[in-house]
Amino acid sequence: MKSLVFLSVILTAILYGNSEHLIVGNVADRVVLANHTKVEYNAFPFMKRVKQYFYSGPKVIQGIQALDLQHSKSSVNITAGGVGSTFVNLRFKSERGGGLDYDVGIYVKPDFL
């Protein structure tokens, strides 16, 4: 039984270890999802694909979550704004010959707290 659990942990680490997720700030406790978006870009042979995502809202951002749904070697960076401001700019870059498929969530503090 212990070897089966160990094997499943190792396989999970291998399969999901290469993906580049971005989780910044508070995305779980006493925050609400203000914006939920899918960022997609098709693959093109031998090229890296770059896409920008912009969010601007009336409330201060408490957390940002960008999950790589393809579990690829693509990357995501915050280029402006972010946690503590009312806007954020994200830059996504795929691996060579690959596409982008990210699930982006922007979290803010609710009105009732």
TrEMBL record:
Which domain of life does this protein belong to?
Answer: Eukaryota
Q: Which Pfam families match?
A: MBF2
Supply the name of the protein: (diamondback moth) hypothetical protein
Can you name the source organism? Plutella xylostella (Diamondback moth)
Give the classification, highest ranks: Eukaryota, Metazoa, Ecdysozoa, Arthropoda, Hexapoda
